[in-house]
Amino acid sequence: AKKPAGIPEAEPKPVNKVGIIGAGLMASQLAQLFIYRLGVPVVMKDVKQELVDKGCAHVRNEFRKMVEKGRLSDGKASYLSGLLKGTPDYADFADCDFVIEAVFEQMEIKKQVFAEAEAAIRPDAILASNTSSLSVTRMASDLKHPERVIGFHFFNPVAVLPLVEIIKTQKSDEVTLATAFDLAKKLRKTGILVKDSPAFLVNRILTRMLVDCLALVDEGAGFRHVDDALLALGLPMAPFELLSLVGLPVALHVMETLSRAFGAERFPVNENFKRVVAAKKGGIYIREGKSSRVDPEVEQMWV
Ligand code: 3HC
37, 83, 113, 288: least buried by Cβ within 10 Å? Predict the structure, then answer.
């Protein structure tokens, strides 16, 4: 069958072992997905053993939840959990075919982990980034083999949302691109090719909406009011709930990237939101069982 436009004819590389840099929320979700869909060993690396342990516990817990829902047998869940190895160093990446980073959204940190990973992996292994908004081309600019770098951007919750943005850098080669599309398919995701432009495709659009939701609150609309309106419109999730799911600092980071790239008029960085992110952890709402209320701290900080 003819391949859809944008997917090269090159033969994809096999992916029999995966490395993940980072063990936070996104990294753990990626580890779970790669193990569950590919059934291959996954190594998850973070700077401290306690972070690694936390990430691994999260993955095991997700498999346990699948057992409780009757989606996995006990035996299969133990087997899948056994495919995960946590580590604080890069040595286990030596035989990985595909390594993806999901660390803090800072260019210098991303460049550093890419350089460290490149020193540990085979020259033909693929190096991917799950960045939300940063230039993947820049991230790869100091590497020896930038041709095997690709952006591979997932959406939260990774287990549920079918999209993965595939970001071709100025130097990504055809085999890398073909492998990324093949991998997306094997993970049962919809891979779409996007340009290496700030925040790519989806986050640019989502942020456009979030920026105006924040402006509406500045203008006196309540958080709940805005959320209820857009939920009633049929969005799968209310915007301020979505902000909490994504993580307020990540959302702010994407806003700042877009503001720098396209100007503050088009993408203003909301001052109230900035203050909230600087001052507190958590989201806009406080959960109380099945219901929730706006965090009074957030309301107080909003002027
Ligand atoms: N992990 C695993 N599974 C999850 C999950 C999670 N975190 N959250 C929900 N699910 C599963 C549930 O178990 C359930 O599965 P089941 O029906 O098979 O039992 C299914 O998803 C539906 O969940 P619920 O019935 O609890 O709730 P909803 O139907 O309201 O769906 C939702 C929840 C999937 C989160 C939905 O509200 C949604 O799609 N929200 C929008 C999310 C979104 O837009 N994300 C993108 C954010 S941007 C981003 O991530 C990019 C980054 O760079 C910033």
Answer: 288
